[in-house]
């Protein structure tokens, strides 16, 4: 289901199961490509249980590094807890050709601003998982924490809990 509230486009995906290892997510996630550096050792994930109703929210503009969290709240959403596990699960559940048209060519960001979504790459930079998409391609990659903006991205979210 896709809804538009204010200037955001929100695509909802019910009952997404988490994937608790990076390598399983890569194997099952319908990717054309992925960073070789993403392994169970370099991207350690805690095991989480339970299906979640996820939302992929696009603000249809460039969004500042910290601005996206407040924009999600204005839509009644918050960053997805255990975002990496649920991003991997969403990619397993929804092949690229079944993604809503509103999300075509939009990267999907799995940052929750908590330590469970942050990993360290070879040079010591902190980073998080995201799915780079465009032109029929889907790649699992790492993005540096601390970038100044997110352009043309969609954010993995869940309903706001008071």
**Count of alpha/pi helices:** 3
Ends distance: 24 Å
Q: How big a fraction of the residues is strand?
A: 35-45%
| Mean pLDDT over the full residue set | 86
Shape: globular
Order of helices and strands: EEHEEEHEHEEEEEE
Helix content: 10-25%
Count of domains:
1
Structural class: alpha+beta
The total beta strand count reads 12
User: What gyration radius follows from the Cα positions, in whole Å?
Assistant: 14 Å
Question: Uncertain runs with pLDDT below 50, 5 residues or more?
Answer: none
How would you sum up the major sheet? 10 strands, mixed
In short:
With 162 residues, the chain is of the alpha+beta class. Helices cover 16% and strands 36% of the residues.
Give structural notes:
With 162 residues, the chain is an alpha+beta fold. Helix content is 16%, strand content 36%. It contains 3 helices and 12 strands. The protein has helices spanning 22-28, 67-74, 83-93, and strands at 2-5, 8-16, 33-34, 52-58, 63-64, 77-79, 107-110, 119-120, 126-134, 137-144, 149-150, 153-159. The strands form 2 sheets. Strands 1, 2, 3, 4, 6, 7, 8, 9, 10 and 12 form a 10-stranded mixed sheet that branches. It has a two-stranded antiparallel ribbon with strand order 5-11. The chain is globular and about 40 Å long. 38% of the residues are buried. The mean pLDDT is 86.
